[in-house]
């Protein structure tokens, strides 16, 4: 049994599910807007910038698809753009859910 597997699984599966349940059950009933979803993009874009800067210094990347040495900046920026788009769409789902609950 690989401890990294369980940590990775908990971080990437259980935590997001827990946040979704918390949002639905315990969060304040507020009406969010599209601007909120835009503001939330600061996290993945900031993280992407940090990863690229840190990787330029250390040549280490937290995920294989962000490895500039392996794929080049074009592909990695495309990957980051795809994740930002997915993050934005998920943010719009949260906005939609907030409007259904408010």
In words, what does this structure look like?
The structure is a single chain. The chain is mainly α and 102 residues long. It is built from four helices and no strands. The protein has helices at residues 3-25, 34-39, 42-58, 68-101. It is flat and about 45 Å long.
Extended strand count? 0
Whole-number mean pLDDT? 92
Largest sheet: none
Low-confidence stretches: none
Structural class: mainly alpha
Strand content: under 5%
User: Approximately how much helix is present in the residues?
Assistant: over 70%
Q: What's the tally of helices?
A: 4
Structural features:
0% strand; 4 helices; 102 residues
Secondary structure layout plus pairing:
Elements: H1 3-25, H2 34-39, H3 42-58, H4 68-101
Helix pairs in contact: 3-4
In short:
With 102 residues, this protein is mainly α.
């Amino acid at each position: 049994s690989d401890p990294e597997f369980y940590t990775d699984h908990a971080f990437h599966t259980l935590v997001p599910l827990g946040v979704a349940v918390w949002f639905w059950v315990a969060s304040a009933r507020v009406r969010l807007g599209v601007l909120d979803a835009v503001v939330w993009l600061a996290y993945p874009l900031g993280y992407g910038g940090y990863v690229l800067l840190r990787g330029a210094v250390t040549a280490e990347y937290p995920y294989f698809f962000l490895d500039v040495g392996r794929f080049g900046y074009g592909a990695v920026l495309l990957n980051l753009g795809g994740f930002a788009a997915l993050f934005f769409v998920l943010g719009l789902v949260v906005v939609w859910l907030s409007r259904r609950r408010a």
